[in-house]
Amino acid sequence: MMEYTDIGTLKYLYLDEIEITNGTDADSFLIEATAKLLQQTGGRNWLPVIVKELSEDRYEVIGNSFVYAVAERAGLERIWCIIADGTEDARNISIVLAREETPKLNLSTASREEIKSALQFLIEQPNSPLKTVKLATATARIDEAPRQFWKSLDSIVALKCGITKGKGLDLLKTVFYLTPESQQDAVIEEFSEETLKLKTVSELKTLAKEKGIVGLSKMKKAELVRILAQ
């Protein structure tokens, strides 16, 4: 097996030493046209394929599968590859960096800005089923919801923020995942009314979210204090 010092090195490997499990989903025209261009420009893949070693002189593609497909179609005998370690983390980050998969955010813990950015990305996709969703409204309602306890992204539908079951919710699942916290295990600290009055509005809203209180965006400090003190 490979030595530790091989990790991160650039190697010129024979194609018949490399196997691929998950190939590219790129259109055949793109592969064909790029292969022709590669042949015309010297046959050197200046963008390396990312591989891990399976055994002596045997490798598997874990990133830049499009480059591998192009090199194979161009009839190259050898290609430049970077050796990665064999961990699942290495595979996952290689696929995401190569833009072969969309990275996902943990909606249980995501910040308001992260939620907004992800929603905007989805809304702006061509023919997006979320194109009519109001970004500010959806962001606020999702951020303020007790999402740390959600067991399914279907809970978003109940927020009535323009995201419904079907294609819209399915699209949302391509960028978000959940790691739900048990409500029984959650320890929510109680505060006196006087202590609550000393906290900022932002701190009060955080406490309210932990208690599963919704509709926080329009609440003033006095109302937050009153509800939390109950």
Plain-language structure description:
There is one protein chain. This protein is an alpha/beta fold and 230 residues long. The protein folds into 3 domains: 4-97, Conserved hypothetical protein from pyrococcus furiosus pfu- 392566-001, ParB domain (Alpha-Beta Complex), CATH 3.90.1530.10; 105-177; 193-229, no CATH class. Helix content is 37%, strand content 13%. The chain is built from 9 helices and 7 strands, in the order E-E-H-E-E-H-E-H-E-H-H-H-E-H-H-H. It has helices at 28-40, 65-73, 88-97, 112-123, 135-144, 167-172, 193-197, 201-210, 221-229; strands spanning 10-14, 18-19, 49-55, 58-63, 78-84, 105-106, 176-177. The strands form 2 sheets. A 5-stranded mixed sheet has the order 1-5-3-4-2. A two-stranded parallel sheet has the order 6-7. Strand 3 and strand 4 (58-63) form a beta hairpin. Helix 4 (112-123) packs antiparallel against helix 5 (135-144). The chain is elongated, with a radius of gyration of 25 Å. The mean pLDDT is 89.
How is this fold's topology laid out?
Blueprint: E1 10-14, E2 18-19, H1 28-40, E3 49-55, E4 58-63, H2 65-73, E5 78-84, H3 88-97, E6 105-106, H4 112-123, H5 135-144, H6 167-172, E7 176-177, H7 193-197, H8 201-210, H9 221-229
Parallel strand pairs: 2-4, 3-5, 6-7
Antiparallel strand pairs: 1-5, 3-4
The gyration radius over C-alpha positions equals 25 Å
Terminal residue distance: 64 Å
Strand content: 5-15%
* Element order: H for helix, E for strand: EEHEEHEHEHHHEHHH
Structural shape: elongated
**Structural class of the secondary elements?**
alpha/beta
Mean pLDDT metric: 89
- Total individual domains: 3
Q: Any guess at the CATH architecture of the largest domain?
A: Alpha-Beta Complex
The CATH superfamily label of the largest domain reads Conserved hypothetical protein from pyrococcus furiosus pfu- 392566-001, ParB domain
Approximately how much helix is present in the residues? 25-40%
Low-confidence stretches: none
In the CATH hierarchy, the third-tier topology of the largest domain is known as: Conserved hypothetical protein from pyrococcus furiosus pfu- 392566-001, ParB domain
Strand order within the widest beta sheet? 1-5-3-4-2
Enumerate how many helices there are, as a single number: 9
CATH top-level class of the largest domain = Alpha Beta
The largest pleated sheet is described as: 5 strands, mixed
Assembly category: single chain
